[in-house]
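Bug #77: duplicate submission created two jobs. Keeping one. Sequence:
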Amino acid sequence: MKAQPLIIDCLQYSLWSEKIFREMNKGGVAAVHVTICYHENFKETIQNLIDWNRRFEKFPELILPGRTADDVRRAHHEGKTAIIYGFQNCSPIEHDVGLVEICYQLGARFMQLSYNNQSLLATGCYEDEDPGITRMGRQVIREMNRVGIVIDMSHSAERSTLEAIEVSERPITITHANPASWQPALRNKSDTVLRALGSSGGMLGFSMYPHHLKNGSNCALDDFCAMVARAADLVGVEHIGFGSDLCQDQPDSIVAWMRNGTWTRDTDFGEGSSTLPGFPDQPLWFGNNTDFGGILKGLHSVGFSDDDVARIAGGNWLNFFENSFAAGVTP
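Kept job's structure:
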């Protein structure tokens, strides 16, 4: 029987617990990129890092800090999961480009230039107008390139995303989204963006969040895997992986925090919904971290080779980490 390949999930925001960490280990998930910021400022983000330090102390047999590709390899070898920090917004750096390097030193390896709204750096996908990367955004991109924090444009609008690909001297990521040609959600990406991402050496992580899936919670695994196959033709099989956007065990109230933060008192329904925000049911084939094996079988069924499935499962992300998590472009 063939060994399951190394698995990396490049975005989750779950209600972290021993149960979830054990599911990660049981599912063979060697690394997870975890969200440690939505709208928090620098000081508030530090508290989230303190919380993670306590988890590493409490569950050393299950999880370990992920700062390098070698940390992921070690976690895989030891049957643990490496936890890689990322920001879904640029709020922790506030107005100070110097905080980019500090955040790297504290363990951050990914940062989105914007969440759903306009930020100091770029435009979010919910805005009506997209003026692109700002003056500060260009400086922050240069600093992120220098220190080794990866630019993530998962929640950014079209022009901003294309400009980030052009401005960055290192490949960028869209860690959790799907092709808009398959499912026209606000956050899914156009073929134009996906072609530019692949041709520049970037990475796309496929989302299993129902709002980003065709037929939502009722999306069929075969349809999802067929979408991955089409995207591989568009982006390149060496530039795709998983970014599930799994929010396991979170209460519905967390959706309001994710969308509203502190910038509004009104309800931000999001994703074109007219109902109160809440988490939709996960598709039956992906409820937690033990379900990746079934997706890998589905990828085989649509024609991917063993080598390609291993790449999509985690090999592509591991190579990307190897080339992205160290100091790069000199100022």
